[in-house]
Amino acid sequence: MTELLIHSMSEFSDLILNVLKLANAREIVEIGAEHGGMTRLLADFCAQQNGNLIAIDPEPGPGFVAWAATHPHVRHIPQPSIEVIGELSAIDAWLIDGDHNYYTVLHELQAADALARRDGRPLLAILHDVGWPCARRDMYYAPKRIPQEYRRPHSHNAGVTPDNPGYRIDRGFRGSGNFAWALQQGGTRNGVLTAIEDFCREAETPTRRLLYAHVPAVFGLGVLFDANAPWAAAVTQAVTPYHDNPLLAKLELNRLTNYLTVLDWQDGYLARTGPACFTSVSGQPIRANIPYSRHPGLDPGSRCSLRPWFKWRPANRKAAGPRIKSGATIIFCQRPCPLPPEAYTYYSTKGRIRPINAAIRSAASLNVFTSTRLLLPRASLADSV
After folding, report:
1. Which in 119, 132, 287, 368 has the greatest CB count within 10 A?
2. Cα 345 to Cα 10, 111, 260, 283, 309, distances in angstroms
3. 345 burial via Cβ count (<10 Å: 0-12, 13-18, 19+)
4. Hey, where are the domains in the chain?
């Protein structure tokens, strides 16, 4: 449902391009191109300024590499940012929207600042995802690239919500395998905004002051720059109306709350409703509406205890569902299948379908996480009511 959630840095394009123009930026680096939404706007800006754009992304979206090859003033570097920043020079501005975690952002800022000081240029860094959820919680696209001392406990199945500093498995805002969340919000060395604050503390000196504007919308935009830059006053005037704007913050919270509510509706629907589908050995589907209720104390996606997840609740004893007989095999599945297969597994008792019990679950050696279709021994579908 990505079409329901605006999330791109390009949503700030008017503000970003205005800041770049005020700073007379011509040589620009973008870290994290993704599908190129902001990259295309930056490319047009650089063409107008007779400048160049360097896009750093080891795994951009489909078609990006071919598009970049057709623009002579755009250079794509398919490597992790921290590995290549030191090879660049004479950069006027940095747009940082890559891997949203403390280690990566801190070292990107440190490397960019080292280049700026070496080349005698003021620092201008524009960063995305400085608000919830990445402000105080690491997100990892490639956890193995993060040194162990910086890598927090994480999960690709974890979901996050604004009211919970912990996590929920397969619920809330999540990456569905595309990225992992740190399992805990807050603390040291955790999150993009924390990285910015720590960088400012180490980079500022008695003769150097950094200014930072925080725009609390669309996951947050940060504008970080040298206070003594010749264009600092103009940029300050441009970003001040957006800085910590309480109306924008309220609208952002409302936007996220509404989106997460839609996700919760979707997750709840998939977890609690929908017709069951039994498939016989011959492959013919036999459908039956099976009302069921979720076992208390268990979250969808978590490892199941030996107690059944669901209890059988026939609305009509005379129409309790398909009859089965022992001695063969049935396949039970439900589509879509948001829960582990054992949550949908039933067995035969006195000719009726019942939830699988602990003994059968153990004997069948069920694989909880790898299949949405499951074979059970000693039962086959005979007919349906």
Report:
1. 132
2. 46, 54, 29, 17, 10
3. buried
4. 2-265, 274-383
Q: What is the pLDDT of residue 5?
A: 84
Please report the DSSP string for 46-73 in residue order: HHHTT-EEEEE-SSPPTTHHHHHHT-TT
Number of H helices, E strands in the chain: 9, 22
pLDDT attached to residue 160: 96
Band of residue 127 on the pLDDT scale cut at 50, 70, 90 = very high
Residue 384 is classified by DSSP as -
Q: Are 320 and 313 in contact (CB under 8 A)?
A: no
How far is Cα 207 from Cα 209, in angstroms, rounded to an integer?
A: 7
What proportion of the chain, given as a percentage, has pLDDT over 90?
A: 61
Given a contact cutoff of 8 angstroms between Cβ atoms, the answer to whether 374 and 333 are in contact is: yes
CATH 3.40.50.150 is right for the domain spanning 2-265? yes
Partners of residue 374 on adjacent β-strands: 332
Q: Which helix (H) or strand (E) holds 126?
A: strand 124-128
The CA angle 158-160-163, to the nearest 5 degrees, is 145
- Give the Cα-Cα-Cα angle 79, 12, 53 (nearest 5 degrees): 35
Q: Mean pLDDT lowest for which of 174-178, 193-197, 230-234? A: 174-178
Region at 24 (left for phi over 0; alpha for psi -120 to 50; beta for the rest): left
> Is residue 147 scored above 60 in pLDDT?
yes
Q: Is 53 left (phi over 0), alpha (psi -120 to 50) or beta?
A: beta
Look up residue 235 and give its two tokens.
Answer: 């940029």
Of residues 20 and 276, more confidently modeled: 20
C-alpha to C-alpha distances, 318 to 240, 244, 321, nearest whole angstrom: 70, 63, 9
Q: Residue 182 forms beta bridges with which residues?
A: 154
